[in-house]
Write a structure and sequence with these properties.
Blueprint lengths: L7 H20 L5 H5 L9 H20 L10 H5 L23 H19 L7 H27 L24 E4 L2 E5 L15 E5 L2 E4 L5 H9 L11 H10 L7 E2 L6 E4 L2 E4 L11 H10 L7 H8 L34 E7 L25 E4 L16 E3 L8 E2 L3 E3 L9 H10 L14 H10 L6 H18 L6 E6 L7 H7 L3 E8 L2 H14 L4 E2 L2 E2 L17 E5 L9 H15 L4 E7 L4 H7 L6 H16 L9 E8 L4 E8 L3 E5 L2 E5 L4 E8 L3 H10 L3 E7 L5 E7 L1
Parallel strand pairs: 8-11, 13-14, 13-17, 14-15, 14-16, 17-18
Antiparallel strand pairs: 1-4, 2-3, 4-12, 5-6, 6-7, 8-9, 9-10, 18-25, 19-20, 20-23, 21-22, 24-25
Length: 731
């Protein structure tokens, strides 16, 4: 075939077009003919249909009107592959696209080749009057590239085999998500919308002025770990958090978690394009409906941003993200400077609270192509920012995506917003956690707050009680195997203990491993830490001590004296049992990051045993554990201006066999009202504050948690009854 001489413009357009078409076909690279034919729900379409529909678009809107003598490949394809263009006639109903066993995949690929050859002739012809249509056609196929991956994931998620579309790509380690912060904006009269120049969809303009009150946006997306806390607080069971239509969806569909979340014996797993994988607590939560995003925002005491707020904040930030590439796409944990806006582009589309409608002065184009966006401006909500499955170059600050509020198979997440440019007044972590915990359906307070000075002293008493076996059992096991353990400690090591308390068990390692050069105890209680350091300094004069007053679950950096050394972590006392399974995985991953490559980590874990032994250990005859539990209320009285009457609460310990844990609660003995940090909380007779979980493990269960966090089991030692285990992990 002879082509006319190439012009620079035509050649560039042809290169863009052919690259686009090759990328679409690449997305179907490993799919079988059955995969490309199947359809999982009315909203989705088979991959084969997407490939044919985008081809029909070029044939209908460019080739037929602009290429003289063009021969339509198959007249019947107009009915089969028209999507929603009423002006072009009837079409195959969308829910029935999966019934199209014909044309075959080979016939569809022949259709694409036929149209590509004709488009090559058109683009090299030098014609200029279809440039806008070509840009629209390219953008349209890029949208369908994203839809292909959305629909493939939904299709594969329906299979009991949970097939993977592609392998997971290795990602560099990242720091934990950390505390959510808010970035303030003064607002005022601002401009949004596309101003012309480069290509944009018609619904992105005209550019116009909008008045914004001062507002703040969260610096990152909400994570899986944060969403898990919403679930645990009964988020899907509390009608007061939901819009009316959203609550109806929850009830009708049985929602209890985001789409593609599946519970398992070792915690939640999430189905993605890489298959079914353990839930990453630091990755952004995905596949949310608008209703879910709005309910979470209500639960968090915030709201969703408007699309004008989002665009105004994002307009000065370059578009960059983990957009669709040859690697299997997935949203990733937030990177970059904390306190600045992150994850605006390329991880997940972000729901806004704005209904999808026309901007002032909007008018759709004439003819069938005018149906592209304008006809959908009813009953849908706007999303912004692009996702990991969005093709590179397809997203800009003005881009308006839109879906119905109940839909959630797209790659959608949420960012919180607040009224007012100033961040909310900072509370102490203790105050924030207490107020948050007492606001939940099941009131709770994290157990790390037991350990103020009186609480630490009471815990030392507990360790001496006849019923409380864990401390003496672990200590006896340490004495027995310490020489063998010491052989795993490298020369010049820094011993890092998480939640060190009085550092009593540490002495077994120090006595048998003189090669330890630095000891870094990490504890939330300065009083306990000071006492332990003073005692160790007297008994180990040649040992460098570098204590760290910190919440050991979130510590990010070691003291200078412990850096640049081989590290040996120590986490005794079965404190890991105080964490929920996903929190335990997150802690172990954080510890691995803190200790670094090549580290060893010795973890003590209490093992499953008889209920009578377990309950007695947490509800002793002398009442010391009860006093330890009630001291939490006394601490709130001292530090948070609370007015708890400790006589109106009693201690309770129960064995929850289904969750393999002993639970400690404070039980209200009457109907009462309590003030905490200026807020009132009501208690009914028998209502409880859940203060601690102490999970009990099997050796295999503990190894599984460690493996999920990137550790491998190197050695383990288990005592005689009452069974207790020491597990040596290697990074």
């Amino acid at each position: 075939m002879t082509h006319p001489p190439r012009s620079g413009v035509g050649e560039d357009r042809l290169e863009r077009y052919l690259a686009l078409r090759a990328r679409s076909q690449h997305l179907a690279r490993d799919l079988s003919a059955e995969d490309q034919l199947a359809q999982s729900m009315p909203d989705a379409s088979p991959t084969k249909w997407h490939l044919a529909h985008t081809t029909w678009f070029f044939e209908t809107f460019l080739l037929t009107p602009h290429l003289p003598g063009y021969r339509v490949f198959d007249e019947r394809f107009g009915y089969l592959f028209n999507s929603y263009y009423e002006a072009l006639g009837p079409r195959q109903p969308r829910p029935q696209r999966g019934l199209l066993t014909r044309p075959s995949l080979e016939r569809v690929m022949a259709y694409r080749a036929h149209v590509d050859e004709a488009m090559t002739r058109l683009l090299l012809s030098g014609a200029e009057d279809f440039a806008d249509l070509l840009d629209l056609g390219i953008a349209h196929e890029e949208q369908h590239q994203e839809l292909i991956l959305m629909d493939i994931l939904h299709l594969f998620a329906q299979s009991p085999l949970r097939p993977a579309y592609g392998r997971a790509s290795p990602t560099p380690p990242v720091e934990p998500a950390g505390e959510l912060t808010f970035v303030g904006f003064a607002g005022g009269l601002v401009e949004i919308g596309h101003g012309g120049g480069r290509f944009a969809f018609d619904n992105e303009g005209p550019r116009h002025k909008v008045y914004l009150a001062p507002f703040s946006l969260a610096d990152r997306l909400i994570t899986n770990g944060e969403w898990l806390r919403f679930i645990e607080d009964g988020g899907y069971e509390r009608a007061e958090l939901w819009l009316s239509d959203g609550w109806a969806c929850v009830q009708a569909e049985g929602w209890a978690a985001p789409l593609y979340w599946e519970p398992g014996p070792e915690g939640w797993r999430v189905m993605g394009l890489q298959g079914l994988r353990p839930m990453d607590p630091d990755a952004p939560v995905a596949h949310l409906s608008y209703f879910e995003a709005d309910a979470y925002a209500t639960w968090a005491g915030a709201r969703l941003p408007t699309e004008a707020e989002w665009e105004h904040a994002a307009g000065q930030i370059p578009v960059q993200g983990v957009f669709l590439s040859r690697a299997t796409p997935a949203p990733t944990a937030a990177r970059g400077e904390r306190g600045a806006l992150r994850q605006l582009y390329g991880d997940l589309w972000e729901w806004t609270r704005s209904a999808y409608g026309p901007y002032p002065g909007f008018a759709p184009a004439s003819g069938a192509v005018g149906e592209y966006n304008g006809k959908f401006m009813s009953g849908q909500m706007v999303l912004r920012g692009g996702a990991c499955v969005t093709p590179p170059g397809h997203v800009r600050a003005t881009y308006r995506n839109f879906f119905h509020p109940h839909q959630r198979w797209m790659f959608s997440g949420l960012r919180l917003a607040r009224d007012g440019a100033a961040p909310a007044p900072r509370r102490s972590a203790f105050e924030a956690d207490v107020l948050s915990g007492l606001s939940r359906k099941q009131k709770s307070v994290p157990p790390k707050y037991f350990y103020d000075a009186p609480g630490s002293a009471l815990f030392e008493e507990i360790c001496e009680l006849p019923e409380y076996y864990p401390t003496r059992t672990e200590l006896a096991l340490l004495r027995q195997v310490a020489p063998e353990m010491a052989s795993h400690v490298p020369a010049g090591a820094a011993l890092v203990e998480f939640g060190s308390g009085a550092s009593l068990k540490t002495r077994q390692l120090l006595d048998h491993a003189p090669q330890i050069a630095v000891y870094t105890p990490i504890d939330i209680s300065p009083t306990a830490l000071d006492a332990a350091v003073a005692s160790l300094r007297a008994d180990y004069p040649n040992l460098a001590l570098a204590p760290l007053v910190e919440d050991f679950t979130t510590a990010l950096d070691l003291p200078a004296a412990a850096q640049e050394r081989p590290t040996f972590g120590f986490f005794p006392g079965s404190t890991i049992g105080n964490l929920l399974p996903e929190e335990a995985v997150e802690f172990l991953a954080n510890a691995r990051h803190l200790l670094g490559d090549g580290a060893r980590f010795l973890v003590g874990a209490d093992l499953v045993k008889g209920e009578d032994v377990l309950v007695a250990a947490y509800d002793d005859a002398q009442g010391v554990t009860g006093a330890f539990n009630l001291n939490l209320l006394a601490r709130m009285n001292r530090e948070l201006a609370a007015d708890f009457d400790l006589r109106n609460f009693t201690h309770r310990a129960v064995w929850n066999q289904a969750l393999s844990r002993v639970e400690m609660h404070l039980v209200s003995r009457c109907d009462q009202s309590v003030q905490v940090a200026g807020r009132r909380f009501d208690f009914t007779l028998g209502e409880t504050i859940h203060t601690e979980n102490s999970h009990k493990f099997t050796p295999e269960g503990l190894e599984g948690l460690a493996s999920r966090a990137g550790w491998r089991l190197e050695a383990r030692w288990i005592s005689e009854a009452p069974a207790f285990g020491l597990f040596l992990l290697a990074a």
